[in-house]
Amino acid sequence: MTATDPALTALSQGWCALSLLHGRIEARIERALQAGHGLSVREYSLLDVLSRQHDGEGGHLQMKQVADAVVLSQSATTRLVTRLEDRGLLQRYLCPTDRRGIYTNVSESGLKLLEEARPTNQAALREALDTAAENPELAPLVRAVEELRVPA
Fold this sequence. Notes:
mainly alpha, 6 helices, globular
């Protein structure tokens, strides 16, 4: 393949379109969450990921798993956890079976804020996708996102 290869060009164009769609969606959700709930997209995502943990075998996520889920470095995730903990939205505690491990749980106020923010997140996502669907370059990607079914 060369730089002028049509397949490479199409691949690059597809990547640019996907990046554009992601950026527009994230920006729309960011504005809505900040305005309505004082949360960033990353903060919302972290609360959402951590709210799905459970007690028992494999129930709590390690910081690396959390970082992967919210697409941040481990150090950025730790700083984000600290900020949310300072706001009273998260709590950290030592793992009862391995004193080296630290668990992070969403506090009651964090769960309440997350539940209040969910409809805002969903509405902003819907609006962003509807707007993007009007762009002929982005419409196929919007359809693909809408048809995705991720296993739980």
